[in-house]
Amino acid sequence: MPAAVRRFFTKYAVFSGRASRAEYWWWYLVTIIINGVLSSLGRIDGATGTTFDVISYVWSLAILVPSLALLWRRLHDANHSGWNVFWVFLPIIGWIILLVFVIQGPRPEGARFDR
User: Fold this and answer.
1) pLDDT tens readout for residues 28-37
2) N or C: which end of the chain has fewer CB within 10 A?
3) Where are the transmembrane segments (predicted)?
């Protein structure tokens, strides 16, 4: 897990190349945990929960580009164009399509994105 998180930050805005399923899903898990902690702290804090809301928004903005780059590289590993990320704008059906692409294993043909 630490290697996947480290790779996430070292490849902050790298849209070329590929990302393994493990790299993608470990980062996804870390993101869920951090967002859960921030959300819980905001609820516990009560009236000053807005502080944690602001921290959560700043965190989300900070990881937006690297998360997009990671998803783009994950699609490459499954031999799909990174442009498939735009399926996210088609509610439900697009999300399912994107999930299927992300779950797929690595394909040797995806090496074409390593250039």
Assistant:
1) 999 999 999 9
2) C
3) 24-42, 54-72, 84-103
Cα(87)–Cα(100) distance, integer angstroms:
11
pTM of the model: 0.89
| pLDDT at residue 51, rounded to an integer | 81
- The backbone region for 73, taken as left when phi is positive above 0, alpha when psi lies in -120 to 50, beta otherwise, is alpha
Rg (CA), the chain: 16
pLDDT at 102: 97
Measured in residues, the chain has a length of 115
Domains of the chain by residue range: 2-114
Q: What are the tokens at 113? A: 């994105």
